[in-house]
Design a protein that fits this description.
359 residues, alpha/beta, 2 domains, 8-stranded mixed sheet, 15 helices, 8 strands, globular
Length: 359
């Protein structure tokens, strides 16, 4: 087993930029032999976004060796042709097959093919700043962490997407996870995407292919359980594009809830209050609604929930136009109910070791 990497005490971050300590480490990295960085990207039906995402990786200000490994799933659009053109146009880009199309399988295939000392996960529709990799490596060096990640900066275009972005950045919508809502640098349960020391991935065996969703949280749990450190820093910010319809949003959050229940079964004691709040709300609201038929005061529970979401949604979107603000409460309720229902209805057949048949 790789010895535990000792974490140094976190440093305060100046307002409006990276901490002086991170900046200093960035400069010191440039003065010595740099680690090789491999970016791994699972790709499926990303014809529209792939070229832009790849360009953002290749345009990084990282001056050391860099490679990008695309794990290509069975896309039904022109993604493979786009990927082939990108690989032909730059020797730093390579492709590997991911026949199942599942995210953990693609990540593991790309990691196996990668040669870097540092492995950075970037999604095919993510938008990263030019200093993303250099900042991440600096934080790895400063903290001694096994994995560092930053803020999932949701940015929408349409009124509904902007409403989803508001909800995803608020504790009212997603709880207090710093990679959603921001906050000071420090140790975390999990982070968005992640930039890893390769030895940490090898120590825990990479992503568990069983977990179609929540594979990041589950692997970060194993990293921490084996003595490693997962570190959040607001110096890293990745633009995330939200779902564009309520149905797609509901499907997304139902899947999150469903698979977070699988993780809780696999790792007992890991379902904290933030994860239990949506299913508790669903059960409590449905029970109170039914009870209200015989005892009307019980209807104060669903009415109170609706009022809290309505008023809260209006307040957290104060900087948005009215068309967006009107949609935020509906978006928040969709996220809460879909996540809660997914958690409550997660079938035991999804447990590890239980055959579910072809996927």
């Amino acid at each position: 087993m790789v010895p535990r990497i000792r974490a140094k005490a976190g440093k305060r971050r100046d307002e409006g930029g990276e901490s002086p300590e991170v900046a200093g480490v960035r400069l010191s990295i440039l003065e010595r032999v740099l680690p090789r960085v491999s970016v791994v990207m699972p790709v499926l039906n990303e014809e529209r976004h792939l070229a832009d995402s790849v360009r953002m990786v290749l345009d990084q200000d990282w001056t050391g060796e860099l490679e990008l490994v695309l794990a290509l799933g069975p896309s039904t659009d022109a993604t493979d042709a786009v990927a082939a053109g990108l690989a032909a146009g730059d020797p730093r880009v390579r492709t590997v097959p991911n026949p199942s199309g599942r995210t953990p399988d693609g990540l593991n295939a790309a990691i196996d093919a990668a040669s870097g000392d540092v492995i950075a996960r970037v999604d095919a529709h993510a938008e990263i700043p030019t200093d993303y990799l250099s900042s991440a490596v600096a934080v790895l060096e400063e903290t001694g962490a096994d994995n560092v990640g930053g803020i999932m900066d949701a940015v929408g275009v349409s009124d509904l997407e902007r409403a989803v972005a508001c909800a995803m950045k608020s504790p009212l919508g997603v709880g207090g996870a710093r990679f959603h809502t921001g906050g000071g640098a420090g140790e975390a349960d999990t982070v968005y995407l992640g930039v890893f020391r390769r030895e940490a991935l090898e120590r825990v065996g990479g992503y568990d292919p069983h977990f179609e969703r929540a594979q990041d949280w589950e692997m970060n749990h194993r990293i921490r359980a084996t003595g490693g450190l997962v570190w959040f820093t607001p110096d890293l910010r990745v633009t995330y594009r939200p779902r564009s319809t309520l149905r797609a949003l509901a499907d997304q959050y139902r899947g999150y809830g469903r698979w977070r229940r699988v993780v809780a079964r696999e790792h007992p004691g890991t379902a904290n209050a933030r994860y239990l709040a949506p299913p508790a709300m669903v059960l409590g609201t449905l029970a109170a609604t039914a009870l209200g038929v015989a005892w009307r005061p019980a209807w104060l529970v669903p009415a109170g929930y609706a009022a809290a979401v309505g008023v809260g949604g209006w307040l957290i979107s104060s900087r948005e136009p009215s068309a967006v603000r009107a949609r935020v409460p509906v978006v928040i309720a969709t996220m809460h109910w879909a996540w809660g229902i997914g958690f409550l209805t997660s079938p035991r057949r999804l447990a590890k070791g239980v055959s579910t048949g072809p996927r």
